[in-house]
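Side project, low priority. Logging it here so it doesn't get lost.
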Amino acid sequence: MVPPELRWGATTAGLVTVGYLAAARNGLPLPGDLLGHVLGIAGFLLMAFAMVGYTWRKQPHRSGPGPMVRWLQLHAYAGLVGPYLLLLHSAFRFRGLAAVLSLLVLVVMLSGIAGKYGPPSATAAPPTRGALWYILHVPVSGAIAALAVFHVLGVLYYHTGGQ
């Protein structure tokens, strides 16, 4: 049986793809167009939730709405759909910072998939210090967050004329 977060993610990606293809009839929407901005903001927010929401909730001294398994499912959903939206936002242009961010997002996605769906010995909770997926997943996520903020600040700076 397919895990619910993968079904939700595939459904969301399918709906977004249909809308994106309809908008791309006359060429791919550019990252700076309205659709590009909407995709970028939505992808950024999903990635931010994936980085912060589950990490915050899984702390032993915190409680929150819903069981931990639901938070992990939302983390996986946001970690799959957010990067897809960012891929569409980039209009498949991989130069400069966008290329670096895309590569790092791919590393985090693959390490997250390995951590969630890999063999039970590799996905034991809590992760062992040497688990490669964990060594990659956490610090590379932090690097993505820093570079994404740098990207957003750069866009805001240059969009307003540097004033």
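Brief comment: The longest helix spans residues 132-159.
Revisit when time allows.
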